[in-house]
Amino acid sequence: MSPVHRENHLIGRIGWLRAAVLGANDGIISTASLVLGVASAGGTIHGVLVAGVAGLVAGAMSMAAGEYVSVSSQSDTEQADLVREKDELASDPGYETEELAQIYVGRGLAIDLAREVARQLMAKDALGAHARDELGMSAATTARPVQAAMASAATFSVGAAAPLILVLLAPANALLALVAVGSLIFLAVLGMVGAKTGGAGLLRPTLRVTFWGALAMAITTGIGALIGAAV
Question: What's the pTM value of the predicted model, to 2 decimals?
Answer without folding.
Answer: 0.69
